Amino acid sequence: MAERKLGRGLDSLLGVPRAKGGEEVTPIPVTELRRSPFQPRQEFDEGKLQELAASIKESGVLQPILVRPSGTGYEIVAGERRFRAAEKAGLKEIPALIRPYSDEDVLVLSLVENVQRADLNPIDKAQAYQRLVKHLGATQADIAQKLGLNSATVSNMLRLLELPSEVKDLVRNGALTMGHARALLALPDEVEQLKMAERVIREGLSVRAVEEFARRDEGARAATPKRRKNPRKTPQVAALEADLRAHLGTKVSIQDRRGKGRITIEYYSPDDFERVVQLIRGDGEQGYSLP
């Protein structure tokens, strides 16, 4: 089901009244403003920013941005494009409405602003949905209700994050459509998905052609006897894995084949990486970081 247009507007979506005559618009120095970590848009078109900056130089900022108090300054809730353009135009202050929004309000407002006023690419949109799910405890049904979408639309969007990073970059920059991306998900693994994505770009394949290839591939795999990918682990290897997991506090996998193999240790953040390295080294030395 295609996404429905979000016609209810930013403020009505969250039950927040629009700025009225009595609501004060406050000029805020640009040095006191910071970008929101909940901003779903990862890339801003430089050409369009320059055009907006030229317009602001000529006529000023015609619509105030929306901010919330944050530390000693303010965090941008809606209007980051205007803020960036105002910086380029050399403005020292920018008009703003100050409101005490929660994190959930900020993320939903940022999403809706980007969807309504400038198309957000599918990957950035999916990552914003994922933030609502993971960090704010929202369900897919909650997201669908807040954004005026069908639950299946949200589910399909989140599935795009299962694609390899190279394919997600192609979707983000417009080289692949969302239809192509969804069709690629039917392929069995990341290697096949990336190969087909490259074929789509090289040969100009349609979404239907990718879907047909995926169906044929699935049929061929169904007709091929399955082989066990990983040999069963011995009790000794399984016990060693458990010991290492307990010692390192993270997932550890040992793959052994006749005395040769690999040990895989997972980490989930730069801090976690440094912690695991210190435990392996056993010397307490700090300062390890990822390249």
Which tags fit this structure?
7 strands, alpha/beta, 291 residues
Task: Give the topology, please.
Elements: H1 10-13, E1 26-29, E2 33-34, H2 46-59, E3 65-70, E4 73-78, H3 80-88, E5 93-98, H4 103-117, H5 122-135, H6 140-147, H7 151-159, H8 165-172, H9 178-184, H10 190-203, H11 207-223, H12 235-248, E6 252-257, E7 260-265, H13 270-281
Parallel strand pairs: 2-4, 3-5
Antiparallel strand pairs: 1-5, 3-4, 6-7
The count of helical stretches stands at 13
Secondary-structure-based class equals alpha/beta
How many angstroms does the end-to-end distance come to? 42 Å
Low-confidence stretches: 1-20
Q: Give the overall form.
A: globular
Q: DSSP strand (E) fraction? A: 5-15%
- Helix coverage percent: 40-55%
> How many strands, what sense, and barrel or not for the largest sheet?
5 strands, mixed
Physical arrangement of strands within the biggest beta sheet: 1-5-3-4-2
| Number of extended strands | 7
What Rg, in angstroms, do the CA atoms define? 25 Å
Give a quick rundown of the structure.
By secondary structure, the protein is of the alpha/beta class. The protein is built from 13 helices and 7 strands.
How does this model look, in words?
The structure is a single chain. By secondary structure, this protein is of the alpha/beta class. The chain has 13 helices and seven strands. A five-stranded mixed β-sheet has the order 1-5-3-4-2. A two-stranded antiparallel sheet has the order 6-7. The protein is globular.
